[in-house]
Amino acid sequence: xxxxxxxxxxxxxxxxxxxxxxxxxxxxxxxxxxxxxxxxxxxxxxxxxxxxxxxxxxxxxxxxxxxxxxxxxxxxxxxxxxxxxxxxxxxxxxxxxxxxxxxxxxxxxxxxxxxxxxxxxxxxxxxxxxxxxxxxxxxxxxxxxxxxxxxxxxxxxxxxxxxxxxxxxxxxxxxxxxxxxxxxxxxxxxxxxxxxxxxxxxxxxxxxxxxxxxxxxxxxx
Length: 221
Ligand SMILES: NC(=O)c1ccc[n+]([C@@H]2O[C@H](COP(=O)([O-])OP(=O)(O)OC[C@H]3O[C@@H](n4cnc5c(N)ncnc54)[C@H](OP(=O)(O)O)[C@@H]3O)[C@@H](O)[C@H]2O)c1
Fold this sequence. Notes:
Layout: E1 6-9, H1 12-21, E2 28-31, H2 40-51, E3 54-59, H3 74-95, E4 101-110, H4 123-143, E5 149-155, H5 161-168, H6 172-180, H7 189-200, E6 211-214
Helix pairs in contact: 3-4
């Protein structure tokens, strides 16, 4: 869509692979561990110093956790929340300084249908994603005076490596049942990307603090 894209994750090889698929050549990759909060200020300064102010930000990094409550410990909660939730809030805090952000910027947190539905064994994941859905409401109000918009996207199952890992742990019968529970089938990454394009663009300029559910009908039942 003509944007210059900065890609952030740990695996540089995969980042380069994604970058090579983008049109245009004003993109960049940063190999960075989002669990290292102390390094965030340098990362943001580096990006803004090299590429200028930020127009949009999508936080997609996340980890799935299927752990029954009797095996959960505070350390596991902290780990899941730190990547899925606090990482988004902390990045928003730093990006939102006037020197780092364009007015009318748009931020998106990738939550999940598990942020408003429950499932056994998913306490840490569900609660980390629920915190994003309500967190964007608070952020949207706080950042509205700067005309910055903040929204969530909540996907159902999207065919990615995360889902491949998850499906390796469950029976074929369960896999069929999960597929059937998505009336329009599983989503593809392009479905999430298209929703991000909408929320980043001016076509959504009056939308803030909301949660856009993309789940092929999963949560309508
Ligand atoms: N797939 C689904 O069905 C589904 C459904 C609902 C919501 N979601 C949410 O959508 C988001 C993306 O999921 P996905 O399915 O694409 O997951 P994925 O295939 O496991 O990819 C996760 C991404 O996060 C990055 N990441 C993980 N830990 C990181 C860290 N410490 N620092 C920096 N980057 C890190 C990974 O890159 P590196 O490993 O290179 O760091 C990778 O790019 C997640 O928040 C997930 O909860 C997914």
